[in-house]
Amino acid sequence: MKIEVLEKSDEKIRVHLGGVSRAYANAIRRIALSEVPCMAVDDVVILENSSVMYDELLAHRLGLIPLKTDLSQYVLPENCDCNNPLGCPKCRVLLVLDAEAKDSVKEVVSGDIRSEDGTTVPISPSIPIVKLAPSQKVKVEAYARLGRGKEHAKWRPAAISILTTPTETDTEDDYILEIESVGSLPASEIFVKAVEILNEKLESFTEKARSLSK
Predict the structure, then answer these.
(1) What is the CATH number of the domain that holds 11?
(2) Does the pLDDT of residue 171 top 80, yes or no?
(3) Is residue 11 domain-shared with residue 66, that is, in the same domain?
């Protein structure tokens, strides 16, 4: 088995996987999309909204803004010992949006969002949210948590995850895995985390299989 990095940046990674089965390589590809966790807004409290946008649409837009994620700082809600459906500082972070148009039209963007921890922030400060006419205001408390792409697309850290066969290869177990991040996590971290998750699944399955012979 061999792993060779062909291209690497925060946004994209291309890895040559040799000596592995197609099933194993494809499992890494799928896990990168569906099971590597990242942060996204899940609960929204609308304190004030005098814009033309409905509360539900405003909350939906906030949920789809990719957030930079530090996997060492938070745990998945189901793994947190707080046992609180509202979460705690170990499994959720508060984001606040408080914007008002004075005498002219104001475009509210992701850079107007303030994060409780200062690190879980939108990947770009220029993502449009809503336009406010003079005297209109939005004030929102949004709670972000870790989740997985299999729950909702907003928790998908990879924009693409593609498995191909090198054109020059002369062996069957030879593949190129390409992962492109949405920006929540570096592409290399998505790849490494996907491999870790797959290995954990295999170890768990092995343990269960061994228990059958006892």
Answers:
(1) 3.30.1360.10
(2) no
(3) no
Domain that holds residue 45: 38-148
Contact between 129 and 61 (Cβ < 8 Å): yes
pTM of the complete model:
0.91
Please check whether residues 67 and 144 belong to one and the same domain.
Answer: yes
Give the C-alpha separation, 143 to 205, whole Å: 34
114 and 141 co-located in one domain? yes
Q: The domain that contains 67 carries what CATH number? A: 2.170.120.12
Mapped onto helix, strand or coil, the DSSP state of residue 52 is coil
Asked if residues 183 and 68 have their Cβ atoms less than 8 Å apart, the reply is yes
Nearest CA among 74, 66, 44 for reference residue 145 = 74
Q: For the chain, where are the alpha helices, taking DSSP H only?
A: 22-34, 55-63, 187-211
Q: Is the pLDDT of residue 81 over 70?
A: yes
Residues near 42 by Cβ (< 8 Å), separated by ≥ 6? 63, 92, 143, 144, 145, 147
CB contact at 8 A, 147 and 155: yes
Statement to judge: residues 73 and 169 lie in one domain = no
105 Cβ contact list (under 8 Å, min separation 6): 131, 132, 133, 134
